[in-house]
C-alpha cells in the first residue's frame, strides 16, 4: 500500500466547476473591451496564385470599417520554424490564405467589407501530394526551400535538435536479420480535432512596443515566444482565458495572433478575432501528414535489429512547429524499437498547397507510430509473433537508452511496463481472442471480428524548464504562481490539490494565479503529458520550501526544533503534543508572507507509456468498421485525481485517437484545392451513443519522481489507437491494410468489392 493522502488520489470538486456550470467562467467569447473592434479575414479562393491587383476602396466606404490591411500596407512580420509565412503576402499558397485583414465596429460591417474587396489573381499550378511536391519540376512554394523540402532545425529545442537517426551500419544489420520486410504506409490529411470553441483572441497595444493578447491559448508562454519571434522588438504579454477544448490545436494560435495584433496596431484600438467554424475546419491547422516508406529487419528472436526509413511529413503551406514534431516522432520511434542497433531514419518536412499543420495531440509521435505499425505488422506476421510479446521485447525497458528531441542521449530509469502489458492483455482477454495474424476471431454472417493492439511511449513528460512560486500568509492561505491555463483537463485543480496536500490546508484556502505570461514565472505549459510530473515537482518543491521556512520560524516561538512541528488547517502544532499549537498568524502576523520557489529542469529519463487493445467489427458487405471494445493499460505512478484521469483517458478515445483511424478525414479536391468536408454534416463525427465499450487498467508504482510520484498520460491516452485499429481491421478481413483512414470505401477496395 502507498502513502495515505488527504487529497491526492481522491476525487474532489474542480476549483472552477461552479463557474463553468453557471456560466461565470471566462472564455474568449466573453472578453469585451471598451472601444473594441471586430476582425475579419478575406481569404484566397485559389490554392496557389499571385495577386495582380487588389482594390479595397469600396470596402473602406462601409460604415464602421476602420482599417484594412493587404500585402501592400501590412507589417513585415514573418512566422514559422524556420521563418517562412509572412503576415500578408502577394503570393498566396492555399485556399483560405489571407489576402486582407479588416477591422470594423461590428462583425456585420467587417463581413460586408470582406465581400466588397476586389482581388485579381494570376493562378499558378498547385501541388498537394507529398511525393509530387518533392519531385523535380514541381511547383515551388518558397524560393528558400528547393523541392518544397523545408530546412531542418528547431531553435526551441537547441542547436542539436534531433532531426534524423543514423546509428550503426544498416547494410550489415539487414544481412544479420532472418526476416526483412519493406512497405509504405500513409496517415495523411487527418483533420483538426475540432474543439467546440473556435480559435480566437483579443489584442491591444500599450504604446508602440507592448502588445497584450487575451484568448484561447493552452500554453501562454509558447504563444508569447512565437509572437515575439514573429514581431521582432515587441514585448508580448499573453493571458489565457478558459480554453474550450484544446487537443493541442490551441496550444498556440500563432497566425491568428499575428493577424489580430496587426489590426490592433494599425487602428490603435483593441481588436477581437474569432474565426468561423467553417474556417476552423478548412483553413486552420491540420495534423501533420505522414507517409512512411520503411525497411525493417528482425532477428530470429523477434528483436528489430535494423531500420531504414524515409519519412515524408506533410506541413501544408507551413508548419508552426513541424521540425520539433519530427524530432518528437523520431524519439518516440526509438522508444518503440529500443533494441534496434542499426538506424538510418531520414525525415523530410514537405510544403504543399493546403492549410498549415500544427501541434495536434500526439505531436509527431502519433503520426510516427501510426505509420510504423502496419509495416511492423508485416514483419510480425511473417514470423508469426504475438504482438504483445513483440512489444514487450522491443519497447524501452529499464536502462534502455534513446535520443530525445534536443538531441541528448537519455536512459529510462523510471519503470518497466512489461507487467502492465501482460495485465492489460489479460483484462482484455487477448490470448483467447487473437487466433493469429490476418484471421478473424469470430464471424457472424457478413460481420467479421478482429483484434489488435499497439503501444505508445513518450519522454515528453519531462520536457524543458519550468518554475513556480507558492506564497503563504498569516491568515492560513496560500497562492500558487504558475503559468498554467485551463484547457479542460482540470490540471489547475490538480495543482491546487498538490499544494494543499503539502501545506495541509483546506482546498478552498489555496488559490492559483491567472495564466498570464507577465505575472508568472516561465513554464512551457500543458504539452506532451508534462503537466503532472512537472507541476508536481516544481509546485511541490515550492510548497515544501515555504512550509519548511514556516516551521523554522515557528520553532522559535514554540521553543522546539522545526523537525518536531507540523501544521494542519493553518495551525502549527508539536507532533508529540498537538495541544501545544499556534495559528500561522502568530508566526507571520497579518502583513508578512513566505514564498517558496520550485524549479523543474529538463529530464527525459522518465518516459510514460500506454498500451491499447481494440476489438473491431467489419461488415465485409458494406465495408463499415465499428469499434466494439477498447481496453487501455498504463502505470501512472500515483493517481492525483481519479476523475481527471478518467476524463483524460476517455477524452483521448475519440477525437485525436480512434477517430483519426476511421472517420477523421479531410477530403481534398485536388483540382480546386478545396476541402469537401468543411462542414459538420460531411465531416463524420461520432455521437455519444456510437462510442464503444471503454475500459482502463491503471496501475500505480510508488516512485520518487516528484512530490507524489505521478506521471502524465494525457497526450498518449489516444495515441496507440490508430495502430491498434489498423491491426484489428486487417485481422478481421484477412488483408494487411496500410493506409488510413479505414473508411468503408477503402475497406471495400481492399476486399475487391469497391464500385
TrEMBL record:
Any Pfam family hit: MoCoBD_1
KW Oxidoreductase (keyword) present: yes
Keywords linked to the UniProt accession: Molybdenum, Oxidoreductase
Domain Aldehyde oxidase/xanthine dehydrogenase a/b hammerhead, residue spans: 22-125
Any one Gene Ontology molecular-function term assigned to this protein's record: iron ion binding
InterPro entries: Ald_Oxase/Xan_DH_a/b, Ald_Oxase/Xan_DH_a/b_sf, Ald_Oxase/xanthine_DH-like, AldOxase/xan_DH_MoCoBD1, AldOxase/xan_DH_MoCoBD2, AldOxase/xan_DH_Mopterin-bd_sf
Keyword Mitochondrion among record annotations: no
Domain of life of the source: Bacteria
Name of this chain's protein: Aldehyde oxidase and xanthine dehydrogenase, a/b hammerhead domain
Naturally occurring in which organism (per UniProt): Enterocloster lavalensis
